[in-house]
Design brief:
The chain has one helix at 315-318, and strands spanning 67-69, 76-81, 87-92, 97-101, 107-111, 118-123, 129-134, 139-144, 153-159, 165-170, 176-181, 185-190, 195-201, 209-212, 219-222, 228-231, 238-242, 254-259, 265-270, 275-279, 284-289, 298-304, 322-327, 331-336, 341-347, 352-357, 365-370, 374-379, 384-390, 396-402, 407-412, 417-421. The model is unreliable at 1-49 and 308-320 (pLDDT under 50). Helix content is 1%, strand content 43%. A hairpin with a 5-residue loop joins strand 18 (254-259) and strand 19. The strands form 8 sheets. It has a 4-stranded antiparallel beta sheet, with no helix packed on it. Strands 2-3-4-5 form a 4-stranded antiparallel beta sheet, with no helix packed on it. Strands 6-7-8-9 form a 4-stranded antiparallel beta sheet, with no helix packed on it. The longest helix is centred in the last third of the chain and has 4 residues, at 315-318. The chain is mostly beta strands. It contains 1 helix and 32 strands. It has a single domain, classed as Methylamine Dehydrogenase, Chain H (7 Propeller), CATH 2.130.10. It holds the Pfam family WD40. Residues 1-54 are annotated as: Disordered. Residues 9-22, 40-54 have a biased composition (Acidic residues). InterPro entries: WD40/YVTN_repeat-like_dom_sf, WD40_repeat_CS, WD40_repeat_dom_sf, WD40_rpt, WD_repeat_multifunction.
């Protein structure tokens, strides 16, 4: 690879985030990343389209969804929504991704080219590009054709490098894509050129989760061995690293992470049920949240901004210091980070798989998805249930908000994606 480095000023305070990396800048690949464990998906594809594996004719199923997309032939592992248009991208066990209309359920584009399960999908900030990532190690990019036409897309490029793609995240403003791999490496690409900008090597296990900070200036990644690394995108060397050798950070592997809107705190969920609060300015553990059962993996973390009065508002709400964690114990716990106290517990009948908060002015509403086949909308100010969303015949593996938060789109182990009104 070429060795030209990104200009430092692109990440300085006040820099224009959209131009923070020159499209021609490509960085050296550092380290071979070592070898990570392999976690293959279940090869059983008996479910087929429409959740036939889960159908029981003796049961009367409730379905309050407004639309469904049944084209996948097997489990649907990932779904994401376009930032403005009525389009969702889903990826599944059938080695395919799809773009489809969430208002009609119509298939728009079949996203082909993968040779193994598609486990990640993601739209960039302006919705002009969509990425799919798979267990085959490929990241494939499509772009929208025409500024006014959201129904037509064309293949742009394929990015290679990772052994198996664990997750994808776009920069909050720029056309830069971040991916975590099963082989311990983290990749950074510039689009539309497809140039590799950086390969971060520092983890010792599969990189299970990660993200840009909301201000776009830093990257946080974490692995299955329990290590968290805070990166400056300009450098292959960590800003700081936390490992299980510090007893305060022993989580038996890290399974989820989120960064607060101010980009000052990260909340990390562990495979053992532990939750830790990390100061990104100090590079240290500043809190431990104990609310989930021991040994129950924390699968989702979501910050919530509470702008209106309620039992959970006050100093924590004013600072954005409310976070929700969801785990395999079926609980979603609401925490006040100003006091490090548990304020409410939301109950599912099985594992919580994802959490999402609506945008302002309804940012106090959160949607949880679960293996119990149900999504639920909650009021985080009071911990009360607002609405249940039913229609899946199997576990819900992923979910996303669309159309400005007015709908939630879910991906099921039953091979179907469903659309629900959030309220």
């Amino acid at each position: 690879m070429a060795s030209k480095r990104v200009e430092d000023e692109h990440f300085e305070e006040g820099a224009d985030d959209e131009d923070f990396i020159d499209p021609n800048d490509v960085l050296v690949e550092f380290g071979d990343g070592g070898e990570g464990g392999d976690f293959p998906m279940d090869d059983d594809e008996e479910g087929g389209p429409g959740g036939e594996e889960y159908m029981d004719e003796s049961i009367v199923y409730e379905d309050n969804s407004t639309q469904h997309f049944p084209s996948h032939k097997g489990s649907v592992f990932a779904v994401s929504a376009h930032p403005t248009a009525p389009v969702a991208a889903s990826g599944g066990e059938d080695d395919l991704g799809y773009l489809w209309d969430i208002t009609t359920g119509d298939e728009l584009v079949k996203l082909t080219g993968h040779t193994d399960s598609v486990t990640s999908t993601a739209f960039n900030a302006d919705g002009e590009l969509v990425a799919t990532g798979g267990m085959d190690g490929k990241v494939r990019i499509w772009r929208r054709v025409g500024k006014e036409n959201w129904r037509t897309w064309e293949f742009l490029t394929e990015l290679t490098g990772p052994d198996e793609v664990m997750w994808l995240r776009w920069h909050p403003k720029g056309n830069v894509l971040l991916a975590g791999s099963n082989d311990t490496t983290v990749w950074l690409w510039q689009l539309p050129s497809g140039n590799t900008m950086q390969v971060f090597a520092g983890h010792k296990g599969p990189v299970t989760c990660g993200s840009f900070t909301p201000d776009g200036k830093r990257i946080v990644t974490a692995d299955a061995e329990g290590t968290l690394i805070y990166w400056d995108p300009r450098s292959p060397s960590p800003v700081f690293k936390l490992t299980p050798t510090d007893a305060r950070f022993a989580l038996d592997g890290i399974t989820s992470i989120a960064v607060n809107p101010a980009s000052t705190l990260a909340v990390v969920g562990g495979a053992s049920g532990g939750v830790r609060v990390i100061s990104l300015s100090k590079g240290d553990v500043v809190g431990a949240l104990a609310g989930h059962q021991d040994g129950e993996s924390v699968e989702a973390v979501e910050f919530v901004e509470l702008a209106t009065p309620g039992p959970l508002s006050g100093s924590a709400a004013a600072s954005g210091g409310v976070v929700v964690t969801g785990a395999t114990d079926g609980k979603a716990c609401i925490w006040d980070l100003s006091t490090m106290r548990l304020r409410a517990t939301l109950e599912h009948e099985d594992a919580v798989t994802s959490l999402h908060h609506l945008p302002a002015p309804k940012a106090h509403l959160i949607v949880s998805a679960s293996v119990d086949k149900v999504l639920r909308t909650w009021d985080a100010r009071t911990g009360t249930l607002v609405r249940e969303h039913k229609g899946h015949h199997g576990p819900i593996l992923d979910a996303t908000l669309g159309l400005g938060g007015s709908v939630v789109v879910s991906a099921g182990d039953d091979g179907v994606c469903l659309v629900f009104q959030t309220e």
